[in-house]
Amino acid sequence: MIDRRSFHRTLGFGAGAAALSLTGLQGVAGATPAPAGPALVVPTVTPGTHTSFPVLKQVTAGLLDVGYAELGPADGPVVLCLHGWPYDIHSFVDVAPLLADLGYRVIVPHLRGHGSTRFLSPRTFRNGQQAAVAQDAVALLDVLRIDRAVVAGFDWGSRTGDILAALWPQRVKALVSVSGYLITNRDSQLKPIAPAGEHTWWYQYYFATERGAAALRDKGLRRELARFVWQSVSPAWNFDDATFERTAAAFDNPDYAAVVLHNYRWRLSIADGERRYDHDEHLLARKPTIGVPTVTLDPALDPFTPAPGDGSGYRAMFTGPYEHRTLPGIGHNVPQEAPTAFAQAVVDADHL
């Protein structure tokens, strides 16, 4: 197994320096706090029980017209669920109703370049760097007048959740982060890792070439590529064609290829970011610790999870109340493969 954290190692500094104030926060409404006492037990659901969200909404937030699903009571404690690549909001199609039934207000946005999320201006650079995606999440919380939320994600979503917890801890009540601490440091990514690790990251290097970019821009090839990634990183997940196609529809977004390509090229320092995000990236390069209550999850069959998958490689980065769980038999797309375990982690993090 390959430790993906070795791809994101950075220089350390204390959590206090990362607690930033956020302009424009005045007047943001607070959600109802979670009930005191022990965490609830999440009912077991068979993965694939739900296939769609009842309602999809659109809202202007920051640079985007954001498409998102929302379930649960409007005054419930908020959970912000963030997907990764190559996935979409359907990763949480079973998780969201579980949490909504427990009284949570669940918000599941399409990330920039995915689904019905669109850039407001054709002149905006189609940026996929980590600080840009994180600021999208803050803008969404602002426009929905949510002052604090439990943030839960995997892949790009874990990275975004980690960044929110590190730079805007006042907005994050608790965190669920699959694969632990994933904040990217580009200097570290210039250094080679073990050949087996380089092999696992094949698509990152593929996207660095014009040949890989052409494949991602081709609607048919991008579907084949995504399906191959699903099979590779979730070897025990027996998803059907309909499950894949529901998510693959999100890849038809006109900005999908540009955002994904920039994300992976930016990580390898072969594409520049934007100066508007320099301040955030400077702070992230100093490896801020995370002090909010956190549950980390390591899926045992994910090729990016190191053996024995006990979270020890990133434990020092979480300085607040903390739990770690290893999920046997589960691959990379944790919320869709193990919705009950993921939802339980959200509830438990909220009660740490």
Question: Keywords for this structure?
Answer:
352 residues, alpha/beta, nine-stranded mixed β-sheet, 9 strands, 14% strand, globular, disordered N terminus
Model description:
This protein is of the alpha/beta class and 352 residues long. The chain has 13 helices and nine strands. It has helices at 95-101, 130-143, 156-167, 186-189, 195-200, 202-206, 210-217, 219-233, 241-248, 256-267, 278-284, 334-337, 339-350; strands at 56-61, 64-71, 78-82, 105-109, 118-119, 149-153, 172-178, 294-299, 322-327. Strands 1, 2, 3, 4, 5, 6, 7, 8 and 9 form a nine-stranded mixed β-sheet that branches. Helix 1 (95-101) packs across helix 13 and helix 2 packs across helix 3 (156-167). It is globular and about 55 Å long. The two termini are 30 Å apart. Mean pLDDT is 90; it is low at 1-35.
A few lines on this structure:
The chain is of the alpha/beta class and 352 residues long. The protein has helices spanning 95-101, 130-143, 156-167, 186-189, 195-200, 202-206, 210-217, 219-233, 241-248, 256-267, 278-284, 334-337, 339-350, and strands at 56-61, 64-71, 78-82, 105-109, 118-119, 149-153, 172-178, 294-299, 322-327. Helices cover 32% and strands 14% of the residues.
